[in-house]
Amino acid sequence: MATINEFSAQLAKINDILIPQVVNKRKVVPAYFTREVVTIVGVKTAKSRFLPVSHEGYSNETYIDKVELLGKLRAEFIARKLKGIERRAHMSLFRELVEISNGTEWKTFFEQKFNNKACTVPDNLCIACWNCSLFGGLEAGRVGTFSRIRYFDTYSIEDALDCVATMDSEEGMGIGNQIYEDLAKQRGAETYHLYEYVKPGVHFPFITMIESPTLLDVAGLISAIKRADEHGYGKYSTNHGKFDSEFLAVSTGYPRFSILDLLKWADEDGIDGLKAKFDANDPKAKFDALNKEVTIFGNENILEIADENLKTEFKKYLDALE
Ligand SMILES: [Zn+2]
Fold it and tell me: What's the pLDDT at 264?
């Protein structure tokens, strides 16, 4: 197996990517891109009801996003929803790391280091911190920085006819009353709302790429994904949209396959067949780099990268910020 040293040798350096520079009297993380890339591949399994809803709804019925794709009607989990929740999870991880590693309250630290701003997502971004460097941001009328992360829309492996509770399914739609209940009215169809939901156990493969990645970005994103799983994605995420993410591969190459390939492989060989493709010896799940890419397979190995490097790499970041 590839070692973490071989892997990190192909990544960008903290000092090149994450340390803000002064532009127009503002600190800004540089929009500087190296040639390196990291691809993270995995499968998310819903462990509660999940409501992927990207359209506004004004009626008292909520329908989840669905799309006809590769011979099935599939639940759709759009990139923007993945990014939004993972960005927030990354920010809360970042704040906690500041307090643990630096002993300063995060808000004070952020204001000292990043343009006198606490950097809140999405409306008051500082454009100078680690989170802004990875996810990008804009200070209206002033400065901006590009996102280094690339998300892809994903779709349920299972057919929506089986995996979504709807008006027509055996379970029927879910019933909630937290938004439309009008206590002045007698309880009835007007006082509660009905919602479709993706059932627990449904699988969504995912691919996420980081451009100009540092080892801190990789360890941080893996940790943030695990937190986002518990926070919840989609509508009503207080109670819904919890996931279990299993990582299949982390590579310094570009993927030679897409989400559509992952869906096809799962349709042909089942979930276990899909997972089995992510093995050093399988010719299908290939990563491509002009230099020989380094790929680490296996959920345990990948989580180990995050666990073993997050705090030490974060300390390097703090030192470089001084
Ligand atoms: Zn920021």
Answer: 97
Residue 13 falls inside a structural domain: yes
Q: DSSP assignment, residue 18? A: T
Domains of the chain: total: 1
Structure-token match 């390097």, residue found: 316
CA of 179 to the centre of ligand 1 (A): 33
pLDDT digits 0-9 by tens, 105-141: 999 999 999 999 999 988 899 999 999 999 998 877 7
Residue 313 C-alpha to ligand 1 middle, in angstroms?
Answer: 18
Distance in Å, CA 160 to ligand 1 centroid:
38
Q: Let me know if residue 105 belongs to a domain.
A: yes
Domain that holds residue 106: 4-57+68-159+203-321
Q: How far is the CA of 129 from the centre of ligand 1 (A)?
A: 4
Rounded to an integer, what distance in angstroms lies between the CA atom of residue 145 and that of residue 127? 6
Helix (H, G, I), strand (E, B) or coil at 151: strand
